[in-house]
């Protein structure tokens, strides 16, 4: 599924009009579908609708009319100066005898639900004045909020923090870059001609990121035939750890080994200076320094717990001439370029701080524009980039994919190591790096979602590894939860 930018959405709108489709119908459907979501979530609770003067406000005015017809008590506060379709929506509402009061006089009553129809894709720059005040008030009072198309104010601050958001026609990248502001997500079909979005998307393909959906990822799962044996389903080498002065993350390579096994690797070779503390199914190759022993593997994960040895591990792993995941201490521009030079498929898995170091910017810049940062790093290195965060972004050249799974409970030491091993297992099973990265990130996030819901925060990384087979089974069985509902 493609995620639209505001510009691409405007282009879709314009194309519909060029084909002679009346734009008022789109607005009518948008408002009607939003009213349906309102009723589903809030029943007959009274509504207070805040409408801007643009088409987002027009959608809100249509919703008000539909709620009214269904017997919901509605109060409406609207900006002045509607034109075009929004003006027609206002006239239709007034014809029902509804009093429309100025936004400046907006007030909120206990038991009401706020409908945020102030701004959608037409917002240019941060809110100020009465709009900023109103949005801050809405966030403060704690009433449930249904946002139409987008929580008003996004991507800037302040913005509405909604209980639920109904996106019209297509999701925008902002919905998945700002999940917290959107609450529950609904996607409303609003009657655009069937092929139109696909046509606009194909014209702009370079620029439109993908959303990783169960539908797109399930077919990528490596098959497990009855004749499978441990040498036929992907063998993984894990290279990492450090023995010297300073901190040692001896558990990191072990967690990567667990991640690889739990993602279905047939055999895992663990190459590290120190052995695992507990018995482990991996074959342990003790080495005194970063070197590559002879290994029969189809892919590697390198750098976990490598400390000052990180670069040496990555350069040693180059000799295997296998697809690799470069993580943590193996993340250096020089290393990435060496893999590019060697023509080896590689997946880099930086978090914002590591990506900033590789790009020579600050972590805030990366966090502010994760899509841009992931794309820049993928273009600079020629490799696949997994920029970890909320959301995690996967990039290869100009191709971008946003991941919808993942739970705040995953924010704990070692979960990144599990992810590296998991992606390596998928590479070893024969998936191309972009696909291995998307699938690994999705299942790792889903494992976190399952555990986060069951146990809350306080997870251990090894538990995330343990939950990977359940996540995989859900995806295989067509039961992985979709991150949104359709209306
Ligand atoms: N296919 C589509 O794209 C459809 C879009 N529709 C709705 O139309 C919306 C987009 O409508 P518009 O393009 O009219 O845009 P909006 O309604 O989002 O906002 C536009 C208005 O906000 C003003 N504005 C922009 N930035 C501002 C700021 N920082 N402070 C104060 N005022 C500001 C503009 O001058 C303009 O009057 C969508 O989000 C959606 O809700 C629907 O009506 C149905 C069809
Ligand atoms: K809105």
UniProtKB/TrEMBL annotation:
Cofactor note (record): Binds 1 potassium ion per subunit.
Residues that, per the record, bind K(+): 56, 116, 152
Binding site for (6S)-NADPHX: 55-59, 120-126, 131, 149, 252, 303, 351, 417
Binding site for AMP: 388-392, 416
Keyword Protein transport: no
Domain annotation YjeF C-terminal: ranges: 213-475
GO biological process entries: metabolite repair; nicotinamide nucleotide metabolic process
CDD domains: YXKO-related
Entry EC number(s): 4.2.1.136, 5.1.99.6
YjeF N-terminal domain: residues covered: 9-198
GO molecular function annotations of the record: ADP-dependent NAD(P)H-hydrate dehydratase activity; ATP binding; kinase activity; metal ion binding; NAD(P)HX epimerase activity
PROSITE patterns reported in the protein's UniProt record: YJEF_C_2, YJEF_C_3, YJEF_N
Record key words, sorted: ATP-binding, Isomerase, Kinase, Lyase, Metal-binding, Multifunctional enzyme, NAD, NADP, Nucleotide-binding, Potassium, Transferase
Catalysed reactions, as listed in the record: (6S)-NADPHX + ADP = AMP + phosphate + NADPH + H(+); (6R)-NADHX = (6S)-NADHX; (6S)-NADHX + ADP = AMP + phosphate + NADH + H(+); (6R)-NADPHX = (6S)-NADPHX
Quaternary structure and partners: Homotetramer.
Family that this chain belongs to: Belongs to the NnrD/CARKD family.
Family annotation (NCBIfam families): yjeF_cterm, yjeF_nterm
Role this protein plays: Catalyzes the dehydration of the S-form of NAD(P)HX at the expense of ADP, which is converted to AMP. Together with NAD(P)HX epimerase, which catalyzes the epimerization of the S- and R-forms, the enzyme allows the repair of both epimers of NAD(P)HX, a damaged form of NAD(P)H that is a result of enzymatic or heat-dependent hydration.
Name under which the protein is recorded: Bifunctional NAD(P)H-hydrate repair enzyme
Originating organism: Thermus filiformis
Organism lineage: Bacteria, Thermotogati, Deinococcota, Deinococci, Thermales
Name of the gene encoding the protein in the UniProt record: nnrE
């Amino acid at each position: 599924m493609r995620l639209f930018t505001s510009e691409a959405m405007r282009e879709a709108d314009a194309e519909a009009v060029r084909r002679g489709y009346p734009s008022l119908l789109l607005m009518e459907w948008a408002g009607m579908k939003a009213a349906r979501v309102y009723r589903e979530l809030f029943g007959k609770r009274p509504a207070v609708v805040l409408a801007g003067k643009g088409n987002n406000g027009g959608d809100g005015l249509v919703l008000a009319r539909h709620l009214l017809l269904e017997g919901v008590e509605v109060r409406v506060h609207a900006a002045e100066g509607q034109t075009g379709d929004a003006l027609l929506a206002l006239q239709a509402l007034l014809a029902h005898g509804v009093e429309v009061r100025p936004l400046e006089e907006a007030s909120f009553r206990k038991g009401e639900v706020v409908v945020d129809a102030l701004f959608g894709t037409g917002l240019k720059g941060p809110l100020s004045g009465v709009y900023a005040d109103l949005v801050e008030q809405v966030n403060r009072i704690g009433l449930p909020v249904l946002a139409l198309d987008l929580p008003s104010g996004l991507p800037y601050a302040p913005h509405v923090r909604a209980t639920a958001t109904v996106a019209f026609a297509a999701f925008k990248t902002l919905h998945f870059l700002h999940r917290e502001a959107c609450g529950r997500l609904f996607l409303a079909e609003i009657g655009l001609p069937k092929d139109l979005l696909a046509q606009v998307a194909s014209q702009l393909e370079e620029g439109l990121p993908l959303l990783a959906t169960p539908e797109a990822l399930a077919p990528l799962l490596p098959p497990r035939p009855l004749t499978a044996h441990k040498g036929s389903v992907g063998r993984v080498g894990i290279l990492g750890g450090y023995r010297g002065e300073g901190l040692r993350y001896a558990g990191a390579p072990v967690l990567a080994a667990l991640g690889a096994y739990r993602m279905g690797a047939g055999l895992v070779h663990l190459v590290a200076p120190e052995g695992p503390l507990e018995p482990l199914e991996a074959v342990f190759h003790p080495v005194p320094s970063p070197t590559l022993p002879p290994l029969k593997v189809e892919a590697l994960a390198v750098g976990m717990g490598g400390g000052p040895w990180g670069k040496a591990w990555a350069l040693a792993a180059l000799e295997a001439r296998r697809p690799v995941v470069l993580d943590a201490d193996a993340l250096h521009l020089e290393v990435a370029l060496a893999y590019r030079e060697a023509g080896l498929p590689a997946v880099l898995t930086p978090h914002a701080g590591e990506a900033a170091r590789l790009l020579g910017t600050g972590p805030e810049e990366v966090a502010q524009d994760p899509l841009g940062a992931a794309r820049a790093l993928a273009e600079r290195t020629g490799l696949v980039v997994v920029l970890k965060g909320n959301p995690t972004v996967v990039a290869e050249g100009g191709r971008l994919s946003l991941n919808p799974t993942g739970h705040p409970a995953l924010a704990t030491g070692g979960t990144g190591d599990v992810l590296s091993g998991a992606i390596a297992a998928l590479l070893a099973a024969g998936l191309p790096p972009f696909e291995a990265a998307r699938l690994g990130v999705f299942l790792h996030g889903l494992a976190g979602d399952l555990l986060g819901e069951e146990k809350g925060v306080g997870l251990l990384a090894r538990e995330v590894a343990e939950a990977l087979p359940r996540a995989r089974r859900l995806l295989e069985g067509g039961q992985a939860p979709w991150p949104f509902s359709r209306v």
